[in-house]
Write a structure and sequence with these properties.
CATH class of one domain: Mainly Beta
Structural class: alpha+beta
Protein name: EGF-like domain-containing protein
Organism: Rhabditophanes sp. KR3021
Strand content: 15-25%
Helix content: 25-40%
Number of helices: 11
Largest sheet: 7 strands, mixed
Number of strands: 19
Length: about 425
């Protein structure tokens, strides 16, 4: 009688039956899905506020919060909301944005730049992990490298603090002459999973591999380095060399007439993003806070401006298709083909094992804590598959010298036909006339 693993009870002496449903199901026979439980079988309303009540009879689940909480899912403490609104001058639009983002975690990274848009950069950077929080060590070609002098911190409004090895602004540059397993760039990072926000469902570090002279963006190609494993990225370096005018409109340097707001070498992606920022600044009177502050543009867009920014993307779409954006390809472009592989950490880390072999697996409390810390780390290794650089050089299928040669041949034949051939015909006619006579 009871469905979906529900437990059936019989009450004596009337022999009446009833069902006790498992989490996720409801109704007299446990045949109806409980709307107050998500797909992970967690309560929608009581994740934070344990006393919140969910209305199961409503078509859309509604939450009634206890006195100390607020939000559509009772996810915000009223004291915290009041503090945030006072500290960051958060208006009702900002609070609504924060509320909707908590229901859709994927939107949170888009919301944060608007919520703290015009705070000083050092305050925004302090919300992300520092170099000491994140790194255990780094090494290059099997040699340990100093963290403070060879890693540069760059704050990104969407990604938070980003740490770049071999950054263009660093004095020391590392070049590898070796390849494969034991060489290249390696680092062990702490995931600090316990410090992550409640809506984060999986912990990983974002890895971006790019030319050191080129800016990266939050839309750049990213790779996920997961916890409790070694993440290995094998690179093949590929350079594309295109021919400029008259064969194509590719460029080698940034023209003075072009709007390009980013440091480093020219890229087509950076050109389109510059065009986008310029248009938003003109249309909305502010700079999109998802990108670093650009000199010459207005203040960052806040929560009140987000609607204007969203309308730009909804009405115009991708800048690639805007008639205002003229962004040719770069004549010289460096790319990396990446092959990813991984290996899980050992069940018991050597440094966590006590001297007694019977305690293998970490039975002692200290050892269990050590093992938990070890499993909350990620080993990242970036190396070359081959140190030989592959270069694709574009060549003209029909060169300019060939065009000149063909032009000369054709013009010569035309000139010959109009002068020499006519003279020869006249001589032929005269001789032919004499023979007839």
């Amino acid at each position: 009688m009871c469905e979906n693993n529900g437990v059936c009870y019989v009450t004596s002496p009337t022999l009446a039956t009833s069902c006790t449903c498992v989490v996720g199901w409801m109704g007299a026979t446990c045949s109806e899905k409980d709307p107050c439980v998500d797909i992970l079988l967690k309560p929608i309303c009581a994740r934070v506020d344990s006393k919140a009540i969910c209305d199961q009879k409503a078509s859309t689940p509604t939450c009634t919060c206890s006195s100390g909480y607020t939000g559509t899912r009772c996810q915000w403490s009223k004291a915290v909301v009041a503090s945030v609104m006072a500290s960051y001058q958060l208006d009702p639009d900002g609070l609504a944005l924060l509320d909707s983002s908590s229901e859709q975690p994927s939107l949170m990274s888009q919301a944060i730049p608007y919520l703290i848009a015009n705070e000083p950069e050092d305050i925004k950077s302090s919300l992300s992990w520092s170099i000491d929080d994140l790194f255990e060590w780094i090494a290059f070609d099997e040699n340990t490298v100093d963290l403070k002098t060879n890693i540069l911190k760059v704050y990104n409004p969407v990604l938070g603090n980003c740490y770049t090895f071999n950054h263009k602004n660093l004095e020391t540059k590392f070049k590898s002459v070796f390849q494969m397993e034991s060489f290249g760039y390696e680092t062990l990072v702490r995931m600090n999973s316990g410090d992550m926000m409640p809506w984060v469902e999986s912990a990983y570090i974002i890895v971006m591999i790019h030319n050191s002279n080129q800016e990266f963006f939050h839309e750049s190609i990213k790779y996920k380095a997961k916890r409790n494993q070694k993440n290995m990225y094998l690179l093949n370096r590929l350079e594309n060399v295109r021919k400029g005018r008259p064969y194509s409109n590719c460029i080698t340097t940034i023209p003075k007439s072009m709007i390009f707001y980013f440091d480093g070498v020219y890229s087509q992606h950076g050109c389109y993003k510059s065009c986008y920022l310029h248009y938003v600044n003109k249309k909305c009177g502010c700079q999109d806070g998802s990108y670093l502050k650009v000199d010459g543009l207005n203040h960052f867009c806040g929560t009140a401006d987000k609607k204007c920014v969203a309308e730009v993307m909804e009405t115009k779409g991708d800048p690639f298709y805007w008639k205002e954006c003229k962004c040719p390809l770069a004549c010289n472009e460096l790319q990396y083909d990446v092959v990813f592989t991984m290996a899980p950490f050992l069940f018991a880390a050597p440094e966590c094992l006590p001297g007694n072999a019977e305690n293998l697996g970490g039975i002692r409390p200290f050892d269990r804590n050590c093992q938990a810390r070890w499993q909350d780390k990620s080993w990242i290794h970036v190396t070359m598959i081959d140190v030989v650089r592959k270069t694709n050089v574009e060549k003209a299928k029909y060169s300019f010298s060939q065009i000149l040669g063909q032009f000369g041949a054709i013009s010569g034949s035309l000139i010959g036909a109009s002068v020499l051939t006519i003279l020869e015909l006249i001589v032929f006619c005269l001789r032919f006339t004499r023979i007839i006579r």
